[in-house]
Q: What sequence folds into this?
């Protein structure tokens, strides 16, 4: 019997046409930022799990030494014809360029990054954005420059990319990478031109990297510095933040739950409420109020009275493949065992906070005074300053109310109201005053103390 | 917020014979567990003692448990609860069980009895979920619920079905209409409770629920109790070594039918006569009068656990 061989080799078109579709343009740009931050983590030896959550609020002893260095800079610029991302995060060595960075996927022995997971971020991003790509990267000792004309490369059956070696910078503070892309497709051009793209991209960078920004890295978009969008978790003398941590198959999980700080008008914003999930310090899920993070399954379904709830779930691993994020890094892999366990713990640690909010709003939407006072004292805390104790339950100190007040509200026919006004001789009084008067009158005459 | 406790104030609690038999059977099991190397006297007992604290008295006296917490959700009973505490080692808390369960220490072994007097509600299922997540390995969880048709004055299975769909939709799984017939509500209640427990235990690899109890009884309302151990292979091994031959009331497989606690009506004099022949052989009848065969068999099942009530003229 003759045995033949079927051709199972990959087509370049698979990568160039297909898998770039799964990702939005913003996600691609974030993938490139991930790579820059990964380079920074490697070159400065940052331990992501310890560095982002320092051990104690006021202890300068525990400030990691990397935080005393100048933050690195990542500059993102684009217009309708050109896209560029430049960083000084350390650069890529010639050896890595030759053997690792441009492969599709990681070899099993590769030292993977902390935010780069599948070994496709760089390729997917650059191929999605445009057809004429120039990459230049310099470490202290050496550098390389590569130019990829995509259309001719896609017709070439070879899976190699030629590059030239250039000199290093001599100074590790300016070592870094620059990626320039031109010749966009029509879809990408339209998106770059759109009026909302810059705002949306700014918002995504501000949220996703809120723990890194200004501390380890500064990101500018078209010359404007992106300020981190903080997670509004708060605490006060009367209300703490619950914490729990555990380890499961190579992943360290740290959970926090507490009340939100009020916004400048003194309200809690429902749009900010819910669970924030971070993998290796990168925000993966923002303000989630859906079943993805347990609402309606373990926790009650989210309703407006829970808008004061903020939860944080940090997942750390030296192997980012073990973390429960999807390939797009926006969204969670529900099958992940460590996430299944975390979800039940999230429901348990969040339960006392929800009970507090239940009591606060137990009668319609009027806030009970005692709970409202606790909530008013909540000051926003920097998530990076949370407690060192391994396990803390959410507790509030609620002072018993002086006198409980209840709202009395009812509708009345205009003709009847007029009759009362006439009888009182107070035609100018507003309806609420009439209501108050009639109540007081009955109280005084029929229910003496 | 929950309305006032119903049963504690409506029923003369000391006179619920089936419930007392259940308690005694549970104690019997815990004694067997202690002999199988479960450190029962070091467990912390958390229960719903109300103003009577019957289970607290039994567990302290017969098992030596001396770290106990009683939870009462009805704040109007606070003074009576504090007044009726039987021992110094019983602490009390006035709040819903939901507020207590997440605070149970993971460094202690727990015996948690969620002894509700109402049918399954979504709040109860939340408590079960939280227990499944929070209870340390080796802990024992028992849940009691009312299994009368939950509709007001209606046995209609469609009313029961609508109730369960409102309270427990995601834990029902695939059910038929007949699962909501009056006689099957105990099974359906157990099913949703077990699913809620499994949900809470999600991700706890190596940890399983090992069933022990599945009681059905009625002193007034029909009630159902389900309970077991949340444990690892260590607990499973210990369980396999537990003496179970004459413990006919145990239900250690997930698909067992319920054990129905039946209390025959007998006078004191009749009980003394029957006791002298216990354990009797099948088909035995007293010489002096005739009793239905079912009653004799029922008595033989429970005689060891059956309380004797007497009036003390004090």
A:
């Amino acid at each position: 019997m003759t045995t033949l061989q079927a051709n199972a080799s990959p087509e370049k078109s698979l990568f160039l046409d297909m898998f770039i579709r799964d990702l939005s343009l913003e996600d691609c740009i974030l993938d490139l930022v991930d790579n820059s931050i990964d380079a920074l983590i490697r070159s400065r030896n940052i331990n992501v799990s310890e560095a982002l959550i320092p051990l104690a609020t006021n202890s300068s002893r525990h400030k990691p030494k990397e935080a005393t260095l100048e933050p690195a800079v990542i500059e993102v610029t684009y217009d309708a014809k050109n896209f560029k991302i430049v960083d000084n995060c350390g650069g890529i060595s010639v050896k890595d360029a030759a053997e690792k960075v441009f492969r599709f996927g990681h070899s099993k022995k590769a030292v993977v990054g902390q935010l780069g997971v599948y070994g496709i971020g760089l390729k997917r991003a650059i191929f999605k954005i445009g057809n004429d790509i120039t990459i230049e990267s310099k470490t202290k000792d050496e550098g390389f420059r590569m130019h990829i004309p995509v259309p001719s490369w896609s017709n070439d059956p070879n899976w190699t990319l030629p590059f030239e070696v250039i000199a290093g910078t001599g100074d590790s503070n300016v070592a870094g990478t620059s990626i320039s892309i031109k010749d966009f497709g029509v879809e990408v051009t339209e998106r770059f031109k759109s009026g909302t793209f810059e705002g949306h991209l700014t918002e995504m960078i501000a949220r996703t990297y809120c723990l890194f920004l200004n501390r380890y890295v500064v990101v500018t978009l078209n010359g404007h510095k992106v300020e981190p969008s903080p997670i509004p978790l708060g605490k006060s003398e009367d209300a703490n933040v619950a914490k729990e941590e555990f380890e499961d198959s190579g992943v360290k999980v740290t959970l926090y739950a507490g009340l939100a700080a009020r916004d400048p008008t003194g309200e809690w914003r429902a749009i900010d409420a819910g669970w924030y999930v971070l993998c290796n310090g990168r925000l993966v899920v923002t303000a989630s109020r859906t079943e993805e993070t347990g609402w309606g399954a373990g926790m009650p379904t989210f309703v407006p009275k829970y808008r004061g709830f903020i939860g944080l779930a940090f997942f750390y691993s030296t192997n980012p493949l073990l973390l429960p994020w999807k390939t797009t890094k926006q969204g969670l892999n529900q099958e992940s065992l460590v996430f299944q366990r975390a979800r039940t713990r999230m429901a348990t640690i969040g339960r006392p906070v929800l009970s507090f909010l239940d009591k606060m709003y137990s009668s319609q939407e009027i806030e009970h005074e005692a709970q409202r006072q606790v909530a008013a004292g909540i000051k926003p805390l920097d998530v990076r300053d949370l407690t060192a104790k391994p396990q803390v339950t959410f507790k509030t100190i609620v002072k018993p109310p002086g006198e409980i007040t209840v709202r009395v509200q009812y509708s009345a026919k205009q003709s009847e109201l007029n009759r009362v006004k006439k009888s009182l001789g107070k035609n100018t009084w507003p309806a609420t005053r009439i209501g108050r008067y009639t109540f007081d009158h009955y109280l005084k005459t029929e229910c003496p103390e | 917020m929950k309305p006032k406790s119903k049963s504690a104030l409506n029923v003369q609690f000391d006179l619920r014979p089936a419930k007392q038999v259940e308690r005694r059977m549970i104690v019997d099991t815990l004694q067997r567990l202690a002999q199988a190397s479960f450190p029962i006297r070091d467990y912390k007992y958390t229960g719903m003692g109300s103003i009577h604290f019957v289970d607290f008295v039994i567990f302290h006296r017969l098992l030596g448990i001396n770290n106990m917490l009683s939870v009462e959700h009805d704040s109007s009973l606070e003074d009576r609860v504090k007044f009726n505490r039987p021992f110094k080692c019983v602490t009390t808390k006035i709040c819903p069980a939901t507020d207590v369960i997440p605070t149970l220490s993971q460094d202690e072994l727990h015996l948690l009895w969620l002894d509700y007097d109402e049918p399954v509600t979504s709040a109860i299922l939340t408590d079960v979920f939280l227990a499944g997540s929070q209870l340390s390995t080796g802990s024992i969880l028992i849940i009691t619920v009312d299994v009368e048709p939950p509709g007001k004055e209606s046995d209609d299975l469609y009313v029961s079905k609508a109730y369960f769909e409102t309270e427990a939709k995601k834990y029902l799984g695939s059910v038929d209409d007949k699962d909501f017939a009056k006689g099957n509500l105990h099974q359906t209640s157990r099913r949703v409770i077990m699913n809620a427990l499994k949900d809470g235990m999600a991700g706890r690899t190596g940890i399983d629920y090992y069933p022990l109890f599945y009681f059905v009884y009625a002193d007034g309302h029909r009630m159902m109790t389900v309970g077991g151990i949340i444990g690892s292979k260590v607990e499973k091994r210990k369980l396999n070594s537990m003496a179970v031959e004459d413990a006919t009331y145990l239900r250690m497989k997930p698909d067992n039918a319920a054990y129905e606690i039946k209390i025959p009506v007998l006078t004191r004099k009749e009980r003394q006569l029957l006791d002298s022949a216990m354990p009797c052989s099948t088909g035995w009848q007293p010489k002096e009068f005739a009793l239905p065969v079912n009653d004799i068999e029922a008595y033989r099942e429970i005689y060891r656990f059956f309380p004797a009530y007497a009036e003390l003229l004090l």
